Amino acid sequence: MLKDLKKYKGFLTVYGHGNVLNALQTAMKHDKISHAYIFEGNKGVGKSTVASGFAKMLTCTSEDQPPCGVCKACLMSAAGSHPDILTVRLGEEKSIKVEEIRTITKEVYLKPYGAKRKVVIIPDADKMTEQSQNALLKTLEEPPSYAVLILVTQNASALLSTILSRAVVVRFADLSERIIAHYLEDHFDTLTPAHRQLIATICGGSIGRAKELAQTLDGDDFRHEATAQLAAFYQNQVGSHADFAIYLKKQSDFIDSLLTFYTVLFRDMLYYKEGLKDKVINTDLLEKISSICEQLAGRSIIKAVEGLLVAQKRLAMHTSFEITVENLLLALNI
């Protein structure tokens, strides 16, 4: 049996992270729950899902293996209304301010309403200001016996060393391609096996990223429109470059998925040029692929892919969107 493909339905439905789930279940079984955890890992690997499931486990009132899913506590947890599960929200300025931490810590010192424990989940914990972290530190130094704090972060090094030393750091690894493919098979049965494998390969071990890509690649309208815009760009008609720049800017909310799709499309072009049509993923776009290939040499396609990858990296680093688009157009205009 592939242990890392196992879904722990007694705990929560999650893909991978068997070592993490085993450790949490064992701690629960032997009543060795820490007062604070830091869940660290890349975006979309399942940290928040596990944090939510762990909170349900800690507040379930069933005597059997929690969470039972049917007790009043579990039903409230599922509805997001359990009074003993508190979640800190990011402010409009994309930071967690000291006032929010002070409010939540006051709640921590109120005894649980119905559960044995009170759980606080802090998503994006690295977005806490230094003042916020110092405010939280006071609770970590003298926590109530029933309190469990779960800090979820992509970057534990952004937290104060005094916080790190007072919490159990749980590291979430990127998921393997087979786990991602298994997830896609369960949730996106309309995708072809080739599409699923491609997404599993390029998503960087993130189920969240795989989901975004699946929704993009499974959307015919999105793919056809994106391909038509690229084809028009390479026809070099008057205004086509400006039109393509406008199109990219209109897609700013989905730009990462769009650039990934274009990377896949250029990959298809390389295979098409080499006469390997059986390796083309977007077979329904062959006519457009052929049309674009007539305008580009193989070296130009490779440079276009390099330009797309650079653009994605720059956007991930919050480089100016307009400047990134302009540089991308230069990379594509070869």
Strand content bin: 5-15%
Mean pLDDT: 88
CATH architecture of the largest domain: 3-Layer(aba) Sandwich
Q: Note poorly predicted spans.
A: 1-7
Could you characterize the architecture of this molecule?
The longest helix is centred in the C-terminal third of the chain and has 19 residues, at 255-273. α2 runs antiparallel to α3. β2, α4 (98-108) and β3 form a beta-alpha-beta unit. The chain has helices at 18-29, 47-59, 72-79, 98-108, 130-141, 161-164, 177-187, 193-202, 207-217, 220-234, 240-250, 255-273, 286-293, 298-316, 321-332, and strands at 36-41, 85-87, 118-122, 147-153, 168-172. The radius of gyration is 24 Å and the shape is elongated. 53% of the residues lie in helices and 8% in strands. It folds into two domains: 3-172, Rossmann fold (3-Layer(aba) Sandwich); 219-332, Zinc Finger, Delta Prime, domain 3. The chain has a five-stranded parallel β-sheet, sandwiched between helices. By secondary structure, the protein is of the alpha/beta class.
Question: How are the SSEs ordered, and which strands pair?
Answer:
Layout lengths: L17 H12 L6 E6 L5 H13 L12 H8 L5 E3 L10 H11 L9 E5 L7 H12 L5 E7 L7 H4 L3 E5 L4 H11 L5 H10 L4 H11 L2 H15 L5 H11 L4 H19 L12 H8 L4 H19 L4 H12 L2
Parallel strand pairs: 1-4, 1-5, 2-3, 3-4
